[in-house]
Amino acid sequence: MKKFIVLMILFLAANMPVNAESRYYTIQQGIPSFRGWTPTGNFVASSSCDPFMVKIDGIKYFMMFDGAKKPSLENLLGCSGGRKVDFFTPLRDLESDGDYSKLTASELRNAGIRFVATDIHNTLLYSDKSKDFDMNKVDYIDMSRVRITPAAVGYGSFDLYIKKDSGSLKKVIGKVSVLPVRWAERMFD
């Protein structure tokens, strides 16, 4: 019996992750509003992996940093390990022209952001830039209307305005939500 227990301990120790990635969650008891702070029940406001996604014409696009030969979670906006106060901190950190009410297409381009498509298996098509959403059609993200929905697993919404062929603008509602790291890693397979 002792040999069996020792064997099980050795087996379990051999299969434990050595370099487990750290994971954090921010618990909030209220959401920012125009009048200050609106109290709510406790909810998860952000985690170490909260990617930004928009669905345009039935295709999911994730906001990613360009330039990696082998993409990873570090390229996924919201999972790149930077500081976070809430869901939208990674998006606010892209601000570069002094107008905090809008995040323009040129600011996104300057930050190296792409809208990377996914296939039917939810795999990111990072290597095929021809599948990306055309940045020339992006007008701006309205940063004055970002929203957090308090829930057991909170999520946020933002408004992306894209240019239609007629020249008018179309509003697309984007999402940011807590994504388990293992699910996010599967998007790179």
Kindly describe this structure.
The protein has 189 residues and is of the alpha+beta class. It has helices spanning 2-14, 89-92, 105-110, 181-186, and strands spanning 25-33, 36-47, 52-56, 59-65, 102-104, 113-117, 138-149, 155-163, 169-177. It has a seven-stranded antiparallel beta sheet. A two-stranded antiparallel ribbon has the order 1-2. A hairpin with a 2-residue loop joins strand 1 and strand 2 (36-47). The longest helix has 13 residues, at 2-14. The radius of gyration is 20 Å and the shape is globular. Mean pLDDT is 82; it is low at 16-24.
Structural class estimated from helices and strands: alpha+beta
Helix content: 10-25%
Uncertain ranges: 16-24
- In one word, what is the shape? globular
- Calculate the mean pLDDT score and round it: 82
Short description:
With 189 residues, the protein is an alpha+beta fold. It has helices spanning 2-14, 89-92, 105-110, 181-186, and strands spanning 25-33, 36-47, 52-56, 59-65, 102-104, 113-117, 138-149, 155-163, 169-177.
How are the SSEs placed, and which strands pair?
Elements: H1 2-14, E1 25-33, E2 36-47, E3 52-56, E4 59-65, H2 89-92, E5 102-104, H3 105-110, E6 113-117, E7 138-149, E8 155-163, E9 169-177, H4 181-186
Antiparallel strand pairs: 1-2, 3-4, 3-9, 4-6, 5-7, 7-8, 8-9
List keywords for this structure.
189 residues, alpha+beta, 7-stranded antiparallel β-sheet, two-stranded antiparallel sheet, 4 helices, 38% strand, globular
